[in-house]
Write a structure and sequence with these properties.
alpha/beta; 9 helices; 30% helix
Length: 374
């Protein structure tokens, strides 16, 4: 009997999981379906570039997964029935035996007249608005995290004729090492960016407001019988498996997932790819009766672009705490580009770079017994 695996979402987490499953499971025993609303892979870590007029490489999912054994279905997920094991989409229902939930996150509490860059269409809307701005117009980016910093520096570099500012609730780059903070402030000064720190309830005006002050997961999981956190993320164990429904795995931003040290992972591409790999390996192990992989997920660095000609790379501990050392300037630009291109390459070549060992699914009774042990 064919084991049906459905992966919801083709971002960094979902696309990597689908490719890894196809690489390791025998197609005679399994059917892998990847469901995504957009027909192309969205390189989310570069959406600030898209918003400022740069074009990103198109990667059609049907081309990416051609001849891999993964069936791509372009559809928007409406609901998940975790008891009946059915996914409702705008293109019909999809039944599953194992579900990998990777629907990611979106910008939260965006004011009515503000813009965000959490998705491709919203980044394109901001792009059109920026194109309409004349010299001397004002742009305010709200949010002092990684997304806000990358957005404001990209806009300031691309449009030096605008008055660009950033509003942060705390200190600019307050989580970074001294070296990284000093470089960040120099970059802001060089680009002419005004910084409003400690902003909490103060009114600031601008012709265009870009909102990067937070992200939230899609509400689909919270509407199911899956156990979710107060944030709406699916609660999973060390192998990314739902603690309430053993046939469901959650990865990337959609999961409240522990790292190798037990601490929750942050929403990021740096979390999405390894959680996708771990979930895929755990599914393969349980279906084929092999040893369950250990969770060794940890961080190495935080990469922040400061326009196209500057960047910083903050080295961090496995639990994401900054080390004193950081790489800045052109060297950091090259490192960040290498990391971004490597992540995109893994999407474009979903079944490469790991040995082909397409395992046969074990007998149903053996799989069930193995599942109950974990």
């Amino acid at each position: 009997m064919t084991h049906r695996i459905v992966v919801l979402g083709a971002g960094y987490a979902g696309a990597n999981a689908a490719g890894r499953l196809a690489k390791k499971l025998h197609p005679a025993d399994t059917e892998i379906t990847l469901v995504n609303a957009d027909p192309e892979f969205v390189e989310r870590v570069r959406l600030h570039q898209l918003a400022t007029g740069q074009d990103l490489k198109a990667r059609k999912l049907t081309d990416v997964f051609a001849n891999t054994g993964v069936r791509v279905r372009i559809a928007r997920v409406a609901a998940v029935d975790a008891e009946r094991k059915i996914v409702n989409t705008d293109d019909g229902d999809i039944a599953y035996d194992t579900l990998v939930y990777a629907l990611g996150s979106a910008a939260v509490d965006v004011p009515e007249h503000a813009y965000d860059i959490a998705g491709k269409q919203s980044a394109l809307r901001l792009r059109d608005r920026l194109d309409d701005l004349g010299a001397g117009a004002t742009v305010l980016v709200v949010g002092g995290g990684l997304t806000g910093i990358e957005a404001v520096t990209e806009i300031a570099e691309a449009r030096p004729d605008l008055h660009v500012s950033l509003a942060a609730r705390g200190e600019l780059g307050g989580w970074l090492s001294d070296k990284a903070q000093q470089h960040l402030r120099k970059a802001f000064d060089r680009l002419g960016i005004t910084v409003h720190e400690g902003v909490d309830g103060r009114e600031l005006s601008a012709d265009v407001t870009v909102w990067t002050a937070g992200f939230a997961v899609h509400p689909i999981a919270a509407a199911t019988t899956l156990e979710v956190s107060p944030s709406g993320q699916i609660v999973v164990d060390e192998t990314m498996r739902s603690v309430s429904h053993p046939d469901v795995y959650a990865i990337g931003d959609a999961a409240l997932a522990p790292g190798g040290n037990g601490s929750p992972l942050r929403m990021s591409c740096a979390s999405g790819v390894p959680t996708g790999h771990l979930a895929a390996d755990a599914i393969v192990a349980r279906l084929t009766g092999r040893e369950i992989p250990q969770n060794k997920i940890g961080y190495n660095a935080q990469c922040i672009s400061l326009g196209r000609n500057d960047a910083l790379l903050q080295w961090v501990t496995p639990d994401d705490q900054p080390k004193p050392s950081a790489v800045t300037g052109k060297a950091a630009v090259r490192l960040k580009e290498f990391i971004c291109k490597s992540a995109a390459w893994s999407i474009s070549h979903p079944t490469l770079m790991i040995p082909t060992r397409r395992r046969r699914v074990a007998e149903v009774s053996a799989v069930t017994e193995n599942a109950l042990q974990f």
